[in-house]
Structure formats: structure tokens, C-alpha cells
């Protein structure tokens, strides 16, 4: 931008140069203000809790194809008293041993106010998803023992809002472990034919 200012300034008159200086000064002041606000307020990461998981389907068939359908409940708390959070382009999906086993489900962009709680209940599913052979063996073994350990993930972008200032976008990565007892339906609540709702109540790891 400084080169453009010099170029315009050399064309006769210092008006363009002064405009460029004002714009650059404004950008610097805004950047310093946002940085100082960030340092002083020290924004806290949102807290995610995987409250429950409703299992509609979970079937592993040959050759290593997994069909699954869940509805999960995530409780999100903004722990900041003076900072709001914008959630942008967030997707929720399930993995097994670091392999994605469902399609990503989009969460609509949303804003969360100070000290506010939000509840998201996305449905995540995968139809005949090919599972790596070594994961299929491990998954079959877990199913035979009754317990399956999955990880519910949420990836996206967040922006922080302080007063009228809104920061740029930051990556958000959420990991929630879910231990589901598929063998004993009495550990959950039967909500329909072959549909069981399991309480998980696990706090998730959050990285921003």
C-alpha cells in the first residue's frame, strides 16, 4: 500500500498520499486496539459437553461396511462475561480410531452471548461407509464385548466479539469421547423400536 501511496503522490498533489497515510494509521490503531483488548480480557475457550447420544443404527457388515445413525446432544457454554462468540462453518461428525465414519453435518452459523448456554442436537450418519480392515477387526471385537468407543468431533471457525469489535476467524477443533454400551439397552432409554438414548455426559477437549 505504501508503494501505491508514493506512486499517487508523485502524480501531483499530496491528497492521495494523505489519504493513504490516514488509512494506514487507522488500520494500525484498530489492530493495536484489538490486540490490547484481547490481552486485557483474555478470552476463554467455550466449554463443550457431550450430553447424550441416541443410536438409531450401528451395523458392521462384510466387507467392512459400516452403517450408522446417531443424534448427539452438545451443550456449549460461553464462559466469557464480556466477550461474545460467533460460530462459523461448523461441522459435526463421528470417528472411530481416527477414521471418519459419518458424513459431516453442518451447524447453522450462530452467535453466543456472554455467559450464555447453547444446545445443539445434530443428526450424524453414514451409509455403507468403508472401514479400514484393521479398524473393522477392532470394531467387531468391541461390538462382541458390547462397548464401542467413538469420538464425536466438531470442526469450524469462531470469531470473538468485544463491544463493537469483531476479530478475524480462528480454527475451532472439538473432540468428545463417547463410550456406548450397545449390548445392554437397559443402560439407556428406549425411545423407539431398536432406538436407544444413552447418557454420555463427557466434557470435550477444545482447541482454538
Features:
Immunoglobulin-like; 8-stranded antiparallel sheet; 6-stranded antiparallel sheet; transmembrane helix; alpha+beta; 208 residues; 2 domains; LEA_2; 3 helices; elongated; Late embryogenesis abundant protein LEA-2 subgroup domain-containing protein; NDR1-like
Question: What secondary-structure arrangement, pairings included, does this model have?
Answer:
Elements: H1 2-9, H2 15-41, E1 47-61, E2 65-77, E3 84-96, E4 99-100, E5 105-107, E6 110-112, E7 117-120, E8 123-130, H3 133-145, E9 147-162, E10 165-166, E11 170-181, E12 189-192, E13 195-203, E14 205-207
Antiparallel strand pairs: 1-2, 1-13, 2-7, 2-8, 3-4, 3-5, 3-6, 3-9, 9-10, 9-11, 11-14, 12-13
Helix pairs in contact: 1-2
Report what the structure shows.
- It is a single chain.
- A hairpin with a 2-residue loop joins strand 12 (189-192) and strand 13.
- With 208 residues, the protein is an alpha+beta fold.
- Strands 3, 4, 5, 6, 9, 10, 11 and 14 form an eight-stranded antiparallel sheet that branches.
- The protein starts with a helix and ends with a strand.
- It is built from three helices and 14 strands.
- Helix content is 23%, strand content 51%.
- The radius of gyration is 24 Å and the shape is elongated.
- The protein has helices spanning 2-9, 15-41, 133-145; strands at residues 47-61, 65-77, 84-96, 99-100, 105-107, 110-112, 117-120, 123-130, 147-162, 165-166, 170-181, 189-192, 195-203, 205-207.
- The protein folds into two domains: 2-41; 47-207, Immunoglobulin-like, CATH 2.60.40.
Amino acid at each position: 500500500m505504501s508503494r501505491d501511496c508514493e506512486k499517487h503522490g508523485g502524480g501531483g498533489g499530496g491528497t492521495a498520499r494523505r489519504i493513504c497515510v490516514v488509512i494506514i494509521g487507522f488500520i494500525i490503531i484498530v489492530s493495536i486496539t484489538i490486540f490490547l483488548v484481547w490481552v486485557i480480557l483474555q478470552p476463554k475457550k467455550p466449554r463443550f459437553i457431550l450430553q447424550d447420544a441416541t443410536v438409531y443404527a450401528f451395523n458392521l457388515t462384510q466387507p467392512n461396511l459400516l452403517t450408522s445413525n446417531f443424534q448427539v446432544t452438545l451443550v456449549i457454554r460461553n464462559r466469557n462475561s464480556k466477550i461474545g462468540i460467533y460460530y462459523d462453518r461448523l461441522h459435526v461428525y463421528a470417528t472411530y480410531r481416527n477414521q471418519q465414519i459419518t458424513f459431516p453435518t453442518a451447524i447453522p452459523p450462530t452467535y453466543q452471548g456472554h455467559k450464555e448456554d447453547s444446545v445443539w442436537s445434530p443428526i450424524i450418519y453414514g451409509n455403507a461407509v468403508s472401514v479400514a480392515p484393521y479398524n473393522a477387526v477392532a470394531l467387531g471385537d468391541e461390538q462382541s464385548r458390547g462397548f464401542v468407543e467413538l469420538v464425536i468431533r466438531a470442526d469450524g471457525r469462531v470469531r470473538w466479539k468485544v463491544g463493537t469489535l469483531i476479530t478475524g476467524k480462528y480454527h475451532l477443533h472439538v473432540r468428545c469421547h463417547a463410550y456406548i454400551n450397545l449390548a445392554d439397552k437397559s443402560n439407556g432409554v428406549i425411545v423407539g423400536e431398536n432406538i436407544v438414548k444413552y447418557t454420555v455426559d463427557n466434557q470435550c477437549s477444545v482447541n482454538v
